[in-house]
Write a structure and sequence with these properties.
The chain is mostly helical. It has one domain. It contains eight helices and no strands. Helix 1 packs across helix 8 and helix 7 packs antiparallel against helix 8. The radius of gyration is 19 Å and the shape is elongated.
Length: 231
Protein backbone atom coordinates (compact mmCIF):
# COMPACT_ATOMS: atom_id res chain seq x y z
CA UNK A 1 0.00 0.00 0.00
CA UNK A 2 1.51 3.34 -1.06
CA UNK A 3 1.57 6.35 1.24
CA UNK A 4 -1.26 8.20 -0.48
CA UNK A 5 -3.56 5.21 -0.29
CA UNK A 6 -2.64 4.57 3.32
CA UNK A 7 -3.32 8.15 4.45
CA UNK A 8 -6.57 8.33 2.48
CA UNK A 9 -7.73 4.96 3.86
CA UNK A 10 -7.09 6.17 7.40
CA UNK A 11 -8.92 9.42 6.67
CA UNK A 12 -11.90 7.43 5.40
CA UNK A 13 -12.03 5.25 8.51
CA UNK A 14 -11.71 8.18 10.90
CA UNK A 15 -14.09 10.32 8.84
CA UNK A 16 -16.84 7.73 8.72
CA UNK A 17 -16.45 7.34 12.47
CA UNK A 18 -16.82 11.10 12.92
CA UNK A 19 -20.10 11.17 11.03
CA UNK A 20 -21.47 8.10 12.81
CA UNK A 21 -20.72 9.58 16.24
CA UNK A 22 -22.13 12.93 15.09
CA UNK A 23 -25.39 11.12 14.40
CA UNK A 24 -25.31 9.47 17.83
CA UNK A 25 -24.82 12.83 19.58
CA UNK A 26 -27.56 14.47 17.52
CA UNK A 27 -29.91 11.62 18.44
CA UNK A 28 -29.65 12.71 22.09
CA UNK A 29 -31.66 15.83 21.17
CA UNK A 30 -29.92 18.04 23.71
CA UNK A 31 -31.94 21.02 24.89
CA UNK A 32 -31.41 23.85 27.39
CA UNK A 33 -33.46 24.56 30.49
CA UNK A 34 -34.49 27.92 29.02
CA UNK A 35 -34.98 28.91 25.34
CA UNK A 36 -31.87 30.29 23.61
CA UNK A 37 -33.89 32.60 21.34
CA UNK A 38 -31.71 31.90 18.32
CA UNK A 39 -28.36 32.39 20.07
CA UNK A 40 -25.66 29.78 19.35
CA UNK A 41 -27.74 28.56 16.44
CA UNK A 42 -30.21 27.19 18.97
CA UNK A 43 -27.71 24.46 19.92
CA UNK A 44 -27.69 23.68 23.64
CA UNK A 45 -24.18 22.19 23.68
CA UNK A 46 -22.70 25.22 21.94
CA UNK A 47 -24.42 27.48 24.48
CA UNK A 48 -23.11 25.30 27.31
CA UNK A 49 -19.48 25.25 26.23
CA UNK A 50 -19.45 28.97 25.38
CA UNK A 51 -21.22 30.25 28.49
CA UNK A 52 -19.23 33.12 30.02
CA UNK A 53 -21.34 34.09 33.03
CA UNK A 54 -23.29 32.18 35.70
CA UNK A 55 -26.51 33.57 34.22
CA UNK A 56 -25.64 32.24 30.74
CA UNK A 57 -24.76 28.88 32.25
CA UNK A 58 -28.00 28.70 34.25
CA UNK A 59 -29.93 29.34 31.05
CA UNK A 60 -28.58 26.06 29.72
CA UNK A 61 -28.22 23.70 32.70
CA UNK A 62 -30.15 25.52 35.42
CA UNK A 63 -28.91 26.95 38.69
CA UNK A 64 -28.12 25.23 41.99
CA UNK A 65 -29.91 23.51 43.52
CA UNK A 66 -31.04 22.05 40.16
CA UNK A 67 -34.66 21.30 39.46
CA UNK A 68 -35.77 17.91 38.15
CA UNK A 69 -35.69 19.31 34.61
CA UNK A 70 -32.22 20.77 35.13
CA UNK A 71 -30.96 17.45 36.47
CA UNK A 72 -32.25 15.70 33.35
CA UNK A 73 -30.57 18.30 31.12
CA UNK A 74 -27.29 17.87 33.02
CA UNK A 75 -27.43 14.10 32.68
CA UNK A 76 -27.95 14.43 28.93
CA UNK A 77 -25.04 16.86 28.69
CA UNK A 78 -22.80 14.49 30.65
CA UNK A 79 -23.80 11.61 28.39
CA UNK A 80 -22.96 13.65 25.29
CA UNK A 81 -19.65 14.79 26.74
CA UNK A 82 -18.60 11.26 27.58
CA UNK A 83 -19.33 10.25 23.99
CA UNK A 84 -17.40 13.33 22.93
CA UNK A 85 -14.13 11.78 24.16
CA UNK A 86 -14.45 9.23 21.35
CA UNK A 87 -15.45 12.02 18.97
CA UNK A 88 -12.25 13.94 19.76
CA UNK A 89 -10.10 10.92 18.95
CA UNK A 90 -11.91 10.41 15.66
CA UNK A 91 -11.85 14.00 14.44
CA UNK A 92 -8.20 14.43 15.46
CA UNK A 93 -7.28 11.44 13.30
CA UNK A 94 -9.61 12.53 10.53
CA UNK A 95 -8.14 16.03 10.23
CA UNK A 96 -4.56 14.76 10.55
CA UNK A 97 -4.99 12.09 7.89
CA UNK A 98 -6.99 14.33 5.55
CA UNK A 99 -4.38 17.10 5.61
CA UNK A 100 -1.59 14.54 5.39
CA UNK A 101 -3.19 12.92 2.37
CA UNK A 102 -3.65 16.29 0.66
CA UNK A 103 -0.04 17.24 1.45
CA UNK A 104 1.16 14.09 -0.32
CA UNK A 105 -1.17 14.45 -3.31
CA UNK A 106 -0.47 18.16 -3.94
CA UNK A 107 3.09 18.21 -2.67
CA UNK A 108 2.51 21.07 -0.23
CA UNK A 109 4.49 20.58 2.96
CA UNK A 110 2.74 23.38 4.86
CA UNK A 111 -0.39 21.24 4.93
CA UNK A 112 1.31 19.12 7.58
CA UNK A 113 0.59 22.04 9.91
CA UNK A 114 -3.09 21.31 9.42
CA UNK A 115 -2.39 17.69 10.30
CA UNK A 116 -1.00 18.87 13.65
CA UNK A 117 -3.84 21.28 14.41
CA UNK A 118 -6.55 18.60 14.53
CA UNK A 119 -4.94 16.64 17.38
CA UNK A 120 -4.02 19.90 19.13
CA UNK A 121 -7.67 20.99 18.98
CA UNK A 122 -8.64 17.65 20.50
CA UNK A 123 -6.26 18.26 23.42
CA UNK A 124 -8.04 21.54 24.16
CA UNK A 125 -11.36 19.71 23.73
CA UNK A 126 -10.37 17.22 26.42
CA UNK A 127 -9.60 20.11 28.77
CA UNK A 128 -12.93 21.71 27.84
CA UNK A 129 -14.83 18.52 28.59
CA UNK A 130 -13.27 18.20 32.02
CA UNK A 131 -14.61 21.67 32.84
CA UNK A 132 -18.05 20.88 31.40
CA UNK A 133 -18.33 17.67 33.41
CA UNK A 134 -17.39 19.59 36.56
CA UNK A 135 -19.95 22.31 35.90
CA UNK A 136 -22.87 19.87 35.90
CA UNK A 137 -22.08 18.82 39.47
CA UNK A 138 -24.02 20.63 42.24
CA UNK A 139 -21.81 23.03 44.19
CA UNK A 140 -19.29 23.51 41.37
CA UNK A 141 -16.94 26.52 41.50
CA UNK A 142 -18.74 28.17 38.58
CA UNK A 143 -16.71 31.42 38.19
CA UNK A 144 -13.36 29.60 38.12
CA UNK A 145 -14.60 26.85 35.82
CA UNK A 146 -16.19 29.31 33.40
CA UNK A 147 -12.96 31.29 33.11
CA UNK A 148 -11.04 28.13 32.22
CA UNK A 149 -13.82 26.87 29.97
CA UNK A 150 -13.87 30.04 27.85
CA UNK A 151 -10.16 29.80 27.02
CA UNK A 152 -10.28 26.08 26.28
CA UNK A 153 -13.38 26.24 24.12
CA UNK A 154 -12.22 29.16 22.00
CA UNK A 155 -8.80 27.55 21.54
CA UNK A 156 -10.48 24.41 20.23
CA UNK A 157 -12.75 26.23 17.81
CA UNK A 158 -10.03 28.55 16.50
CA UNK A 159 -7.69 25.62 15.85
CA UNK A 160 -10.47 23.79 13.99
CA UNK A 161 -11.13 26.94 11.95
CA UNK A 162 -7.47 27.28 10.96
CA UNK A 163 -7.20 23.57 10.14
CA UNK A 164 -10.27 23.87 7.89
CA UNK A 165 -8.86 26.97 6.19
CA UNK A 166 -5.54 25.22 5.55
CA UNK A 167 -7.23 22.19 4.00
CA UNK A 168 -9.27 24.41 1.68
CA UNK A 169 -6.20 26.49 0.83
CA UNK A 170 -4.50 23.28 -0.30
CA UNK A 171 -6.68 23.38 -3.41
CA UNK A 172 -5.84 26.98 -4.32
CA UNK A 173 -3.56 27.55 -7.29
CA UNK A 174 -4.36 24.47 -9.33
CA UNK A 175 -5.13 24.35 -13.02
CA UNK A 176 -8.90 24.43 -12.50
CA UNK A 177 -9.93 27.99 -11.77
CA UNK A 178 -13.43 27.17 -10.39
CA UNK A 179 -11.84 24.86 -7.81
CA UNK A 180 -9.35 27.56 -6.84
CA UNK A 181 -12.09 30.15 -6.44
CA UNK A 182 -14.29 27.82 -4.40
CA UNK A 183 -11.38 26.71 -2.21
CA UNK A 184 -10.23 30.28 -1.59
CA UNK A 185 -13.78 31.27 -0.67
CA UNK A 186 -14.10 28.45 1.85
CA UNK A 187 -10.68 29.23 3.35
CA UNK A 188 -11.59 32.91 3.76
CA UNK A 189 -14.96 32.00 5.26
CA UNK A 190 -13.30 29.68 7.77
CA UNK A 191 -10.87 32.37 8.90
CA UNK A 192 -13.54 35.08 8.99
CA UNK A 193 -15.98 32.88 10.91
CA UNK A 194 -13.24 32.00 13.36
CA UNK A 195 -12.47 35.65 14.04
CA UNK A 196 -16.13 36.61 14.35
CA UNK A 197 -16.86 33.63 16.63
CA UNK A 198 -14.10 34.79 18.97
CA UNK A 199 -15.61 38.28 19.07
CA UNK A 200 -19.25 37.25 19.36
CA UNK A 201 -19.71 33.53 20.07
CA UNK A 202 -23.48 33.68 20.46
CA UNK A 203 -23.90 35.07 16.95
CA UNK A 204 -21.13 33.41 14.96
CA UNK A 205 -20.24 30.04 16.50
CA UNK A 206 -22.99 28.30 14.52
CA UNK A 207 -21.78 29.70 11.14
CA UNK A 208 -18.25 28.58 12.04
CA UNK A 209 -19.53 25.10 12.86
CA UNK A 210 -21.32 24.97 9.50
CA UNK A 211 -18.16 25.95 7.60
CA UNK A 212 -16.17 23.29 9.44
CA UNK A 213 -18.87 20.72 8.66
CA UNK A 214 -18.65 21.59 4.95
CA UNK A 215 -14.88 21.13 5.03
CA UNK A 216 -15.22 17.80 6.82
CA UNK A 217 -17.61 16.55 4.13
CA UNK A 218 -15.08 17.76 1.54
CA UNK A 219 -12.29 15.93 3.38
CA UNK A 220 -14.28 12.69 3.41
CA UNK A 221 -15.06 12.99 -0.31
CA UNK A 222 -11.41 13.75 -1.11
CA UNK A 223 -10.26 10.72 0.89
CA UNK A 224 -12.69 8.50 -1.00
CA UNK A 225 -11.49 9.84 -4.37
CA UNK A 226 -7.80 9.40 -3.54
CA UNK A 227 -8.39 5.94 -2.12
CA UNK A 228 -10.28 4.91 -5.26
CA UNK A 229 -7.69 6.31 -7.66
CA UNK A 230 -4.76 4.66 -5.91
CA UNK A 231 -6.34 1.19 -5.91
Amino acid sequence: MNARRGWSAAALVFGLGVFVVTGVILSLRLHPVEPLDGAYGGEAMLAFELAETPAELARVIGSDPPSAEALAVRQDMDRANHIDFLYMFLYAGFIACSCGSLALVHGRRWLWLGALLGPLAAVWDIAENMALLSLTKPGADVPALLAALHVRTLAKWELLAVASALFAAGFVGGSRRPVTVAAATVAILAVAAGVLAALSPASFIAPLAYVIAVVWIWQLAFAAVVFGRTA
